[in-house]
Amino acid sequence: MAAAADADAAGERAAGAGLGSRSAAEERSLLHPSLFSAYSDEDLVERAFEPAQKIVVSISSDPDDPDADDEHLYYGGHAPPFSWRKLWLFTGPGFLMSIAFLDPGNLEGDLQAGATAGDTLLWLLFWATAMGLLVQLLAARLGVATGKHLAELCRDEYPDWARRALWLMAEVSMVSADIQEVIGSAIAIKILSNGFLPIWVGVVITALDCFFFLSLENYGVRKLEAVFAVLIATMAWSFAWMFIKTKPNGKDIIIGILVPRLSSRVISQAVGLVGCVITPHNVFLHSALVQSRKIDPHKEYQVREALRYYTIESTMALVVPFMINLFVTTVFAKGFYGTKEAGNIGLENAGHFLQEKFGEDFFPILYIWGIGLLAAGTSSTITGTYAGQFIMSGFLNWRLKKWIRALITRSFAIVPTITVAVYFNTSDSALDVLNEWLNVLQSIQIPFALIPLITLVSKEQVMGVFKIGPRTQIATWAVASVPIIINGCLLLDFFSSEVKGLLSGLVLFAAVIAYVSFLLYLIFRGIACTRKKNGAKAHRPSAPLHVGRLNTQCNAVNRPSEQQVSKLKYGDVYKQITSCCI
């Protein structure tokens, strides 16, 4: 028996030596890549949040041992009981994400829909918000399960030329949205200053206060989240006050939400409502914000816990912007639906129309509108800058100080915005044309955030056990196709009316061909990669495994600790983990 044991030991050493002699790339492919962060180049990669910045989230349900976790409950197939304290700890990222549903562009779409279509598009507002919630839940799922945000994963997933093209599209989307947000804030400052401060001065003020608010992150993520809570509360108070003052018909509101109605004369307003809900940079933002909580993506039970509370938090967060958008739409439906002013209302003159319609008061409705618009513009410019930092660091992996990244991101938007503000300062109609072009730019970018997101959350090689199933994939593609198709129709209608002449038509045709080709590449590449790797998995036993699955299957006593893993070679790690799982 001693001889047999010696032979077995010698064979095990030989196998270990053979495994250790493999290339690092081959050994990395045996397990989830994030397992090897201790001895890879992860320290050279820019992360959304440094470990010291992350908020510690208690996973314990035992009040006598707050440092313990509920891993044993997940091993037994039971989730720990719901905790309001845990929900409070996870609350924050969803409300920052919800700001994109309340930016000045959305408010302008709401007031125009209300003035032109009355309450008949409230059902579309509800379902558009529901579609936006589904997309944001997928973004949160991606960030929590992988420990990386969408821009980082796109950098790893796509070749260099496609990665740079996606980065360019994301930057264009962010800048076009930021211009609208900054101008919205500047209009609010002009209203509140009674016209004393022109729009370009408001642009400069907005650019500076954005840096001030972002500096609060140095004192902790919770401080920045508290600022957003105040801004959201300010918007809610302002527009709720307007709603109460104007007294819309409650019966019409309920019918508008429950009964779908759509006429040909309000198609453009309907498209505007749907197109404003899904903003590409917000998808990148939410996948990064969920990493502000200290969650180990290697541990399946922690990921499941986080997804549970983030789902609740995101749903609660989007109820607030839905109600605010509802208030704005119904207020302008009450005051201007069927009037001659309905087709001429925009952000800049909306307050004056409200003042003329509903008269003076102790606190004029014009300034209530200005306060709400300022809160919407300020909060959305901050989140836009925040998203720009994640997009830049994720796609390009630039290791820069945050204030430098913020300065670069703001420069992308502020320089053209000041130029626009000076040029369009005396022309409301020209400003409306500019907003139309900016909406077109953002509509063009929507697929370049949705397609990579759906592709990545559908791949087991990326998500492990947290990949979405076939039914969810079908539902997700169906939901994603709605804004893509709607915005495609909008683009065709817009360009057919704006583009004239043979040369401009040829240029547009070439651009459309390039655009569609890139979309098809993204779609078919994702499908091909998924099929290829799933097929390889069927006959190759050493296919990549998700660490969360290993954590569930392995005995907790035999599983090596993180300190032990960091000292082992690749071959030893694979041998020890697989030996405890077999």
From TrEMBL:
Source superkingdom: Eukaryota
Keyword terms, alphabetized: Membrane, Transmembrane, Transmembrane helix
Chain spans, region Disordered: 1-27
Membrane topology term: Multi-pass membrane protein
Entry-linked InterPro entries: NRAMP_fam
Membrane-spanning segments: 122-144, 195-214, 226-244, 266-285, 306-328, 366-391, 403-424, 444-462, 474-495, 501-524
Gene Ontology molecular function: any one: cadmium ion transmembrane transporter activity
Chief location bin: membrane
One GO biological process term: iron ion transmembrane transport
Family: Belongs to the NRAMP (TC 2.A.55) family.
Name under which the protein is recorded: Metal transporter
